[in-house]
# Entry
Amino acid sequence: MHGIETHIACAREAATYFDLGEGDVWLMSLPMHHVGGLSILFRCLVSGAALAVPEADEDLHDAVERFEPTHLSLVPTQLERLLDSGIGAERLRACRAVLLGGSAASPALRERALRAGVPLYVSYGATETTAFVAASDEPDVVVRPNAAGRLLPHRRVEVAEDGEILVGGNGLFDGYLEDDDVVAPLDTSARYATGDVGRLEDGVLYVDGRKDRMLVSGGENIHPEEIEGVLVALEGVEQAVVVSVDDAHFGARPVAFVKGDSLTSDRLASALRERLPGFKVPDAFYAMPEDALEGLKPDVAGLTAMLRDAEAFRVLRAL
# Structure
């Protein structure tokens, strides 16, 4: 549950941050049932910028070429696809700001965008925080692994002893709707526990992974996002998702789904052993099913279910 006053206040702060105003065009590149898409609407509403709305079935590449936006909000998959297109990359360079969020983006993708001249901003936020709470376009921050930007003045962000990111201050949602009541899951200091694990260093927020994705293998904590980051940094790897599977001896073990060219399990495992402790190397590597990358974020739950379903498992291709 969100209050309209909160959306308007966050939109005004974002409009000031991006110097957004009349003559600017922000493309509705994210669905409005996500807070990232809804935020675009409010930013244009309060600033006088134009809201460019593509046709329902219009390809993002075509919409970017047709509307020539000054501002764009993208998730990593969208950014990668636009960079793969010459015209898409040219239009990205012509933007004043390209805001990247939604899920973790590899340093390799960020560096590629900067090399292409894209005015890239990394950011961090959640549905419950209404808008981003950290952002930065500083190249030395953008390329750092897991960096999510510098904290914004109107947000209060702290890191708990267990590493969980806590958010307070302006912009928090009203709560969850439960049995016709709105329940705000805030602690005694009015902070929202995001479920994300990270750290604060010199005003820069780093997001290392999700608490609910962490697996314990033989007593060792493993964050799948760390393995994914190493995988996508390898030559030939375009996308990687690491999931947890039950193991009778260790309790749980990581398994990787990878998209790329000329990849083999032996090559990937060997490369990971050079960069990670042995217990973090996945037990198996599978080719990424195409439909796992169709949404704004990789379908982690769907991939996990495929490993557990005998019929679905038979169609998986081991690398």
Summary: The chain has two domains: 4-210, 214-314. The CA atoms of residues 135 and 149 lie 4 Å apart. Residues 4-210 form a domain with the Rossmann fold fold (CATH 3.40.50.12780).
